[in-house]
Write a structure and sequence with these properties.
It is a single chain. This protein is of the alpha/beta class. It has two domains: 9-210, Spore Coat Polysaccharide Biosynthesis Protein SpsA, Chain A (Alpha-Beta Complex), CATH 3.90.550; 215-313, no CATH class. The chain is 46% helix and 19% strand. The chain contains twelve helices and nine strands. Strands 1, 2, 3, 4, 5, 6, 7, 8 and 9 form a nine-stranded mixed β-sheet that branches. Helix 1 links the parallel strand 1 (9-17) and strand 2. Helix 8 (219-235) packs antiparallel against helix 9, helix 10 packs antiparallel against helix 11 (287-295) and helix 11 (287-295) packs across helix 12. The radius of gyration is 20 Å and the shape is globular. The protein starts with 8 loop residues before the first strand and ends with a helix.
């Protein structure tokens, strides 16, 4: 049974967590410090082996908290779906277990929802503890007008993971699916297709932790993006949407090939890097990076890594 805050807002916080025992205290402390308290907090311990669930349960005297334990580890899509399935409030707010909220986060999100309805996405601060904190470049998180949101979300995920939405909208769209990467983007596409309009808060309230593994352009993320675009092509409800998705699929295939070329370049496999770069060129997308990797694979891979490190360092 989920505890509830006697004066809490009609919103439940869901927090999927996997082996985040060293960071989850910060996330939960940021919920405890909110100017508007949530009705309930659901931590979904997704088969952790480092005591994450026990760390979370220690907060039960300070928060209306329940820990849902899953075994074995099923991935963030299944963990997020399990969290929402336990929600009793009309609104759901998402917080990753390695991130944190500024004290006015829920207050601002709920005020934006009260004024606009739909789905509310936050503005975030990129946060590398002890290293840097900076705002996300505005163009990366611009929210277009409602008539252009479906095309825009297919082109680029402009909805941040730390989002507030109505449980009824979530259920009508089919909820989180069994994906280990990109589960939120997959959901936002379906919700926007279903008519949900996205609104953005007017200032940053979310601390997005940059971890060391954020430096690398991972194959898993790129592969997941390709799979999501393939699904959008298959599920498109109009020929126009299908054209948008097919163009997006070419871009994501090119991005995957570039990720593979970079990995080969790092490993000194020039032949593999050039073959992957040629695949990227065949998609007629991401042409300049692909050409650089085709001609000078080791140098291009090193430049990409240095740029990524510089972004983390601020």
């Amino acid at each position: 049974m989920t505890l509830s805050h006697p004066n809490g807002a009609d919103v439940t916080v869901i927090m999927p967590a996997y082996n985040t025992a060293k960071m989850i205290d910060t996330a939960l402390a940021s919920i405890a410090g909110q100017t508007v308290a949530p009705h309930a907090v659901l931590v979904v311990d997704d088969g952790s082996t480092d005591g994450t669930g026990d760390r979370a349960e220690a907060w039960a005297t300070l928060l209306p908290l329940e820990v849902v334990r899953l075994t074995p580890n099923g991935g963030i899509g299944l963990a997020s779906a399990a969290g929402v399935s336990h929600v009793a409030t009309p609104l759901v707010a998402h917080l990753d277990a390695d991130d944190a909220w500024l004290p006015d986060h829920l207050e601002v999100m709920l005020a934006t929802f009260a004024a606009s309805g739909g789905m509310v996405t936050t503005q975030e601060l990129a946060w590398a503890p002890g290293v840097t904190m900076r705002t996300t470049p505005p163009r990366e998180r611009m929210v277009p007008p409602a008539p252009r949101q479906l095309r825009a979300i297919i082109d680029n995920n402009f909805v941040f993971a730390g989002t507030l939405f109505q449980r009824s909208d979530y259920e009508r769209a089919g909820g989180y699916r069994d994906l280990r990467n990109g589960e939120d983007w997959d959901l936002w596409i379906r919700m926007i297709r279903d008519g949900v309009v996205v609104h953005r808060t007017d200032h940053p309230t979310y601390l997005y932790r940059i971890r060391p593994d954020s430096l690398s352009y991972g194959h898993r993320s790129a592969e997941a993006n390709v799979e999501i675009m393939q699904t959008v092509v298959a599920e498109a409800t109009s020929e126009q949407e299908r054209r948008w998705a097919r163009r997006g699929l070419r871009r994501r295939r090119a991005a995957l090939a570039i990720a593979q070329a970079i990995a080969c370049g790092r490993a000194g496999d020039r032949r593999g890097a050039r073959q992957a770069a040629a695949r990227a060129l065949s998609e007629r997308s991401r042409v300049l990076p692909a050409l650089a990797l085709l001609v000078l694979p080791r140098w291009a891979s090193t430049v990409r890594d240095r740029r990524a490190a510089a972004r983390v360092a601020g």
